[in-house]
Design goal:
The complex is a heterodimer of chains A (about 425) and B (about 260). Chain A is mainly alpha-helical and about 425 residues long. Helices cover about 75% and strands about 5% of the residues of chain A. In chain A, the strands form 2 sheets. A two-stranded antiparallel ribbon of chain A has the order 1-2. In chain A, strands 3-4 form a two-stranded antiparallel ribbon. Classes of the chains: A mainly alpha (about 425), B alpha/beta (about 260).
Chain lengths: ~425, ~260
């Protein structure tokens, strides 16, 4: 390894990075042209602002080691201020084109993060988590005390098509709204990525890894956490405002709830908190889960809980880490050796899942939709939830699936460690040469 | 004249137990001081007091003539005092280079900057690269700190400590847990990277102590009972009685046993 060897990869890396960003922008532009249904457009719009929200959440969780249970406070306050700003603009009280409303939401998110975060970020670890939970509950409770601002149970409605068209855009159509969201999504993602490469961004990682040591290299860990928290609040507010523009209604019992905060946490984690792009995957999953999975089965929250549990146990780095681990294997040309075990694992998981899902569906059906008769329709199958045969069949499939899965998992684990060993050997050889 | 580090009647109690009982010490700039003493004498506690990790019960600590007791660790660090830890205290999920750069940033005035890219901070990157070279970990530049060997982590620990350019450096048992050959190489490293600095170190290895230190402070039951050149300390009857006699006897016994 000489200087030339270390200097040359820099250029392709910059080029590669530029390519990723151009690809991301192109994807944002093209997606609504590929998926033209109104459902698809609705989902894409939701993904757009959820990407911003989950990334802002991960500034705390993944980059700063701050487990927040109250991120909905900042998205929600961003949404409420945005809605009121839009309504004031509709009345003509303030001149405010719709395209800058997300910035108003961002400012609101930032303001409340600066206000409430001062208390929150005084502590780290478990204490931090508990304080965010407390503040989340506090704000949610407060929203019931000020119905004139939070709109009570009905929430606050607005109309985004106020004022003069902006560059010919009225934002009456969902497509125009999507592109507004996509633009903010791209810029916010870029800015949050840039943040990871700044001195504060790096010290935030250092605070996550070892807050004590940070104090001995001159940094006040509270300030590192606080400033980062305020920046995360800004982007959360933008995301909340975009959600408000999208739905034209904000409801406190939903937007400020602990459930909402929990959702951001859950999907950021599922997507992968250890990599910058993980929360983007999480946001996409969040929309798929809440829109499509909920159509598919009434027990969708249960499946979601199961998925979360499995992820925490077997892949704590989330989907992003699974991708990166396999990319590494592919880089060394060893992915082919894993294909066989992956297919086995997939088939075994499918059998196991089918068995478990059949049991879950039958239980749900008997408990909740008894009036609809005994027949369960699920994944194209129909079966009688009251007949012992169905239960025995489901139990048998589960048992067979469990055995197959155990076998496949063992074989996979062995093959995986073999491949990792080979890669280590290749690396050692390279270093020695 | 003012001393680099000066302790005036420093006391520290945990509950009802007084650990540091009126310690006095005045270290001249540029001196290398080793603090020795039996286990439980309060050596590490003394470092924790000087570096601001714990607050004092009473007394005063001055750094280059400025009073620093009561200040938080980062304020003391900014005034030019750095310390290492007995157990490696590094940023595990950051690369070796990033670890060193984190140690450099504040001293170069970057503070809480979030409007500049690290990649463009030539002075910080150059300084981190220099440090990498000084602690001889060039080849491990991009390795995550948690994947380093024990000795490498100890070297990184020293690297982070000196990164900010502090003129007073406290090293808490820098060679603890190292083999004999590693220790002698490591002492060379410490000597190199602390040239011109005031050095205070807690050390158990008497070979290291007598080889490295200009002066030795003997701490027994929270009091500095002797502070003098190595030869004078060796000859001090009180030190012999309280601590050094048994340690030297042990060392000689170990030597004879080989």
């Amino acid at each position: 390894m000489t200087t030339t060897a270390t200097a040359t990869p820099a250029r392709p890396m910059i080029a590669g990075r530029a390519l990723i960003w151009i690809g991301f922008a192109a994807l944002l532009v093209i997606l609504p042209l590929l998926f033209r249904s109104s459902l698809a457009l609705t989902m894409l719009s939701q993904m757009g602002y959820l990407v911003i929200i989950c990334l802002s959440y991960n500034m705390l969780l993944g980059q700063g080691g701050m487990l927040s249970f109250g991120h909905a406070v900042y998205t929600g306050m961003g949404a409420f201020i945005a809605v009121h700003a839009m309504n004031l603009a509709t009345k003509g009280t303030i001149p405010l084109p719709l395209v800058v409303v997300p910035l108003v939401g961002g400012a609101a998110g930032m303001f409340f993060a600066a206000l409430l975060g001062y208390v929150t970020t005084k502590k780290s670890g478990t204490t931090f988590a508990m304080i965010t939970l407390g503040i989340g509950e506090l704000v949610a409770a407060m929203s019931l005390m000020f119905p004139s601002f939070f709109g009570g149970e009905g929430g606050v409605t607005t109309n985004r098509t106020y004022g003069h068209p902006f560059l010919g855009l009225t934002f009456g159509s969902q497509l125009q709204v999507y592109y507004l969201i996509a633009t903010y999504c791209f810029i916010s993602t870029g800015l949050m990525y840039a943040f990871t490469g700044t001195p504060l961004g790096r010290m935030l990682n250092a605070v996550r890894d070892n807050p004590e040591r940070v104090e001995f290299v001159g940094y006040n860990t509270q300030w590192v956490r606080y400033i980062s928290f305020v920046i995360a609040g800004f982007f959360a507010g933008i995301g909340g405002a975009l959600a408000a523009i999208n739905f034209e209604i904000v409801n406190a019992s939903d937007s400020l709830s602990a459930v909402r905060s929990g959702g951001y946490l859950l999907f950021t984690f599922l997507g992968g908190a250890t990599f910058f792009f993980g929360p983007i995957i999480g946001a996409v999953l969040l929309v798929f889960a809440s829109v499509m999975l909920s159509e598919l089965t009434k027990a969708w929250l249960l499946y979601l809980g199961l998925a979360f549990l499995l992820m925490v146990m077997f892949a704590p780095g989330g989907i992003a880490s699974l991708i990166m681990m396999n990319l590494r294997v592919a880089k060394f040309g060893k992915l082919g050796r894993l294909l066989g075990v992956y297919v086995m694992l997939a088939l075994a998981s499918a059998v196991l899942f089918l068995g478990i899902a059949a049991v879950i569906e039958m239980v749900y059906h008997l408990q909740l939709s008894d009036s609809l008769g005994a027949t369960v329709h699920f994944l194209g199958f129909s079966f009688d939830a009251k007949s012992p045969t169905s239960w025995m069949a489901a139990a048998a499939v589960t048992a067979v699936g469990a055995v197959l899965f155990t076998l496949a998992r063992r074989r996979f684990a062995r093959r995986w460690s073999d491949v990792q060993g080979e890669i280590e050997a290749m690396l050692a050889q390279e270093a020695g040469a | 004249m003012s001393f680099a580090v000066e302790l005036k009647n420093v006391r520290k109690s945990f509950g009802k137990t007084e650990i540091i009982r009126g310690a006095e010490l005045a270290v001249t700039a540029g001196e290398r001081i080793a603090i020795i003493g039996p286990n439980g004498a309060g050596k590490s506690t003394l470092f924790n007091l000087i570096s601001g990790r714990f607050g004092l019960t009473s007394g005063e600590i001055h750094l280059n003539g400025q009073r620093i007791d009561g200040l938080p660790p980062y304020e003391i660090s900014r005034r030019g005092l750095a310390r290492s830890f007995q157990v490696s205290n590094i940023f595990g999920r950051l690369s070796v280079f990033e670890n060193l750069r984190c140690g450099v940033l504040w001293s170069l005035g970057y503070k809480y900057t979030f409007w500049k890219f690290l990649a463009g901070l030539d002075d910080a990157n150059r300084r981190a690269s220099d440090l990498l070279h000084m602690i001889k970990l060039d080849r491990k530049r991009d390795t995550l700190a948690m994947n380093l060997t024990y000795a490498e982590q100890r070297a990184l620990e020293i690297g982070i400590t000196i990164a900010g350019g502090a003129n007073v450096v406290l090293l808490d048992e820098p060679t603890a847990g190292m083999s004999k050959s590693e220790t002698s190489r490591f002492i060379e490293l410490i000597r190199e990277v602390t040239v011109g600095k005031t050095l205070l170190t807690v050390e158990h290895d008497m070979g290291v102590v007598f080889g490295l230190a200009d002066k030795i402070a003997v701490l027994v039951y929270g009091e500095v009972i002797a502070f003098d050149t190595p030869d004078a300390v060796r000859a001090n009857a009180r030190v012999q009685e309280a601590y050094l006699g048994s340690v030297l006897a042990d060392a000689q016994a170990a030597e004879a046993g080989h």
